[in-house]
Predict the 3D structure of the following.
Amino acid sequence: MKTSIQVCVLVLLAAKAFAEEPAAPAASAVIHHVPLNEVLQGDAICVFEVKNPQHAGAIEVHVVKDAAHASELTVTALRDDTDYVARVPAARVSLAGFAYYVVEQMPDGSTHAVFADAGSPHPVHVTRPAEVEDELQRAAARGGQRSLVLLSAEGIDYGDRRLIAGQPKAHDRYYRLEAGYAYSFFTHVETVRLTLVRVRGEAAIFNDGAKPTLTETQPGIDYGRAEVTLLGTEELRLRAAVLLGASQRGFEYGGGAAVMLGDPYGMNLDLGVEQITTLGTTGHLRMGLLAYEHVPMGASIEVSSFPVGDDAGVRLLYDVGYRFGPVTQLSVRAGYQGRTSVSGGLSLGAAMSYGF
């Protein structure tokens, strides 16, 4: 009997101890976050690794007010394939930088601090992408002027030539007028340019045959040049052009290409060729330099079959200009050219470019 009573007492004591034992704590989520310290302009991405996500509340990123935005912005992290991601919109990722803190909003309305806090938000430095920085530096070198209007005029005289013994001399001269507009992107496609060109002249064509004869002609053509400059490196640029127009003979077409080494507004070397039906082909080599702060100069040599696409002539030219601004410039060009060793003439031209 006594033994039975002792057993009952032990059972009662064990039951009481079991009833008074505290319950195991409920499982909770663990949130890990690598802070943002420096980001590029554009959307900023906050990533959170969450263990036991079934027990997690809403993860809220609070972007605090800054000089550009008076109000605080709250962004809720959303689940992607592996983590939770909050995207801070680009409008809040300015060069002035921003600051943020993160909380976990529980279903019962309570909040748990995840990272930083409202009294001491985490600052983030914002930078531009490298290609944007390069573009802005090129634009700054041009005073922020991306548009350019160009006007030029040039008269070229090869002198009067006697092509057939006993026959009168024939004039060999022409003039060229150009007007254009260029826009600079300062990216890999650096500049696009559209130019309208008018050429008028006097020349004679030698007709070789049983009895050589001369045909006097007055070449004239109006055409447009569509040109694009590609930026390879800061020291290498490539240009390509398409030429379309009309003359007394009908539709005319052609093209051009050039390579430039160096600084277009300083020391540089420009080698190119341009060809159009009827008029002929011109190849040029020009060395440019900045003699003084506002005084660019250049020396050129051209080999050209203008204006009738017949025998080639050689031109030696020198140009000097004055810059009133980063790209606004007035320049003059003068030189001498000839097609034979006994005839030649002078050329004189002027050009103006206005940037805005």
In short: Residues 2-20 form the longest helix (19 residues). DSSP finds two helices and 23 strands in the chain.
